[in-house]
Amino acid sequence: MSSPWGSAAAVLVSDLQRIFGARLHAVVAYGPQLDGDGDAPLACLALVESLAIGDLEECARLASQWGRRGLATPLILPKGEFRRSLDAFPLEYGEIIRAHERVFGDDPFAAVSISRDDLRRACETQVKGHLLHLREGFIEAAGRPQTIAELVSASAPAFAALLRNIARLNGAPAANHAEATEAGARAAGLPEGVIRDVLALERHAAIPTTDAARLFPDYLAAVEQLARTVDAWRTETRA
Predict the structure, then answer these.
(1) Which terminus of the chain is more exposed, N or C, with fewer CB under 10 A?
(2) CA geometry: angle 121, 93, 21, nearest 5 deg
(3) Quick one: three-class SS letters along the chain?
(4) CATH value at residue 12
(5) d(C-alpha 18, C-alpha 40), whole Å
């Protein structure tokens, strides 16, 4: 593997082969590393034929070594369980499907699709949960600019993920991290300036505390608009 994370992924595959043998079907890499965040640990999904407590114990013994090599704890699932869980975790699995690279075995997503209805329901839950979190956090901040700024900054990655899910719901083609985020913002008709400023926080840009705090009203309005957008899709589905 010639990618920057290839050697770490190869170690993980070797370890999992030793534990699971022929029961290891596929390993894919996904997450921030593939989207250009070289400081993030490498996230991987491994699909296996079966998963027992003994397998978990073997993996647990390697967890510290994996961490030192820049690997996140791998997501290990029996192949059948993964397929039966697509309706329960359409956003999480949809993000992996959107941007992943196969590092071992066949592509596990070749014949996999996520229901649009499942995706819409999950988007609605995510958007409205985010909205409630922002409102509650603002009240708890009690007018302190530093705390409001921290609320905006800490929630920026979740907001970006939310926009990518909106893009997927709107039928945008698979794209890289930035393009998918921008596609979601366009689909919901959100103001470009607000989105640019909030997403700069996701990239840890140096924005003064006072500026981040001042973003809050427009940021909240953008999330409220997202909620209305998802509600409109629900109405169209029922029509």
Answers:
(1) C
(2) 150
(3) CCCCCHHHHHHHHHHHHHHHHHHEEEEEEECHHHHCCCCCCEEEEEEECCCCHHHHHHHHHHHHHHHHCCECCCEEEEHHHHHHCCCCCHHHHHHHHHCEEEEEECCCCCCCCCCHHHHHHHHHHHHHHHHHHHHHHHHHHCCCHHHHHHHHHHHHHHHHHHHHHHHHHCCCCCCCHHHHHHHHHHHCCCCHHHHHHHHHHHCCCCCCHHHHHHCHHHHHHHHHHHHHHHHHHHHHHHC
(4) 3.30.460
(5) 26
Do 25 and 77 touch, CB atoms closer than 8 A? no
Strand pairing category for 75-78 and 43-48: parallel
Phi, psi of 222 (to 5 degrees): -65, -40
Rg (alpha carbons) of the chain, rounded to whole number = 20
CATH number at residue 154: 1.20.120
Determine the Cα–Cα distance for residues 144 and 3; give it in Å rounded to an integer: 44
This prediction's pTM: 0.73
138 contacts: CB under 8 Å, gap ≥ 6: 148, 151, 216, 220
User: In this structure, is residue 1 part of a structural domain?
Assistant: no
Task: Please determine, for residue 166, whether its predicted confidence score (pLDDT) is greater than 60.
Answer: yes
Report whether pLDDT(35) > 90.
no
**184-216 per-position pLDDT tens digit:** 898 888 988 888 888 787 665 555 555 778 889
Domain-ending residue, one of 71, 105, 139 = 105
* Last residue of one domain, picked from the residues 105, 135, 154: 105
